[in-house]
Amino acid sequence: MAPAGASAGPAIPAPAGLTSTDVSFPGFGGLTLHGTVLAPAKAGTPRPGVVLVTGSGAGVPRDHLLTEATEFARQGVATLIYDKRSVGYSNFRRSYSELADDALGAVRALRARPGVDPAKVGVWGLSEGGWVAPLAASRSTEVAFVIVVGGNAMTPIRQQLWNETSSLRREGVSGSVIDHGKRNFTRLGGDAGLFAEAYFDAEGVLARVRQPLLGVWGARDLQTPPEDNPPLFARALRRGGNTHYTFRFFAGADHGAHESPDGGVTRGPALAPGYAELVGSWVRDVTSGRLPNADAPTPPQQDDPSIEAPPSAWWESAWTQLAAFVLFVVAFTAYPLVALVRRLRGRRTRPVSRWARLLAGGGLAAVIGVFFYLFYLMAAGRSPDPGPVFAGRPLPWLALQGLAVAAIAAGIATAVAWRRTAARVPRGERVRLGLLLSGGAVFLPWAFYWGLLLP
Q1: Ranges for the Peptidase S9 prolyl oligopeptidase catalytic domain (predicted)?
Q2: Of 345, 306, 96, residue with least CA distance to 182
Q3: Which of 11, 59, 146, 373 could be bridged to 213 by S-S, CB 3.0 to 4.6 A?
């Protein structure tokens, strides 16, 4: 018996001039998924069809894509939308392979519908679906064509990094908090397994796609780099010998090719003018054998370039960062804790240097503060509030940079003082100071790596 999926969503009434038919089909692992097929009410020759694959999120309901499904159906294309799985999908665990199998289950269901030409059924993918739809097509000759909207031919971690850093730049942020802090924290999450499918090989998948492909981007896409991705798509497709692709760009449109009243920040309810008509005519052409040949105009300019985010080297890996963090906690807390224990026992010891306290306190505060602040920015996603910004630097980041500089200066002063009084320092105090200064020595390159000592 196949496992049941999420309960079917509410029925979708048939829009004017269309029919609405509920369907169920097995996805990956036999999970039952539920959807709706919208098609022209007027009978005629078997028509082409398309399965819509939504973007990120667990259990996204089918009506999220109702506008697209309605407009495509009015162009004569039978369109299947379905409730996305929540089983096996979360922020920390998802599989594009499983989602591709779900999409292929939907393709088979649509191919079996009366009035649909089974040889003319393709897949359409939005955002995350732009990784999933080509993967599904690369696995099955049953898929006749591929459409991606706001799609990426780069790794998910590179796209996400661009998404988040672009949001910060729009808030006036620049410099090391983006170029070092944000970038390295994102890579750390990917290395630690906290970013599902972080290094998915999008170009490798596209190189295996043999079907014609339509790529659509809004010129004001704020989530996916609309300038960087089209050349990557073309390069990957051509590497696999596929030149049957068409790229189109819609001025003023957002990530999903919807009209946007404010430059891509807010999604309007309507599709960009001409977008649905493009899909209808392109599908009719390619399913009739009229294939495009590398039709790729110059893409729109994006505000900021995306940057590579490769897996970390061993010296910056999650395990190395964890080891450094443990050293900092031990080294910077041991110094004041030992002093507290001595005081409680009535054994006061004159410190070698009062700067040591600043090294311990400032170093620990900077280490903990960096991770808390960068985690906060990550959690804020596309709606960050970095705090007051001065000359491109958020006030919390400036404070952390000040702590780092103070801690390093204090470490140097402590080392100098210890050298001057080394002969008079008791053995126990030498151990305490040695541990503290070891933490300070590692803190210096660590602070450079995270951008605390950079403009």
Answers
A1: 100-258
A2: 306
A3: 146
Q: Supply the range of the domain harboring residue 143.
A: 18-155+200-287
> Tell me, what's the pLDDT at 351?
63
Using DSSP's 3-state secondary structure scheme, residue 260 falls into coil
Q: Which residues contact 193 (CB under 8 A, 6 or more apart)?
A: 92
Among 280, 286, 282, 288, which residue's Cα sits nearest to residue 77? 280
Give the pair of three-digit tokens for residue 115: 């009035």
Under 8 Å CB-to-CB from 308, ≥6 apart: which residues? Answer: 158
DSSP 390-404: ETTEEHHHHHHHHHH
One-letter amino acid of 199 = Y
Task: Encode pLDDT of 168-195 as tens digits.
Answer: 999 999 999 999 999 999 999 999 888 8
Six-digit token pair at 195? 């970013």
What's the rounded Cα separation, in Å, for the pair 212 and 227? 21
CA distances from 27 to 20, 33, 89, 126, 271 (A): 21, 6, 13, 19, 29
Domain annotation covers residue 12: no
Residue 94's contacts (CB-CB under 8 Å, 6 or more residues apart) are: 88, 196, 197
Mean pLDDT of 115-126: 98
Are 245 and 215 contacting, i.e. CB atoms less than 8 angstroms apart? yes
Q: How far apart are CA 52 and CA 154, in angstroms?
A: 21
pLDDT score of 92: 83
**373 confidence band (pLDDT: 50, 70, 90):** very high
Task: For residues 278 and 332, state if they share a domain.
Answer: no
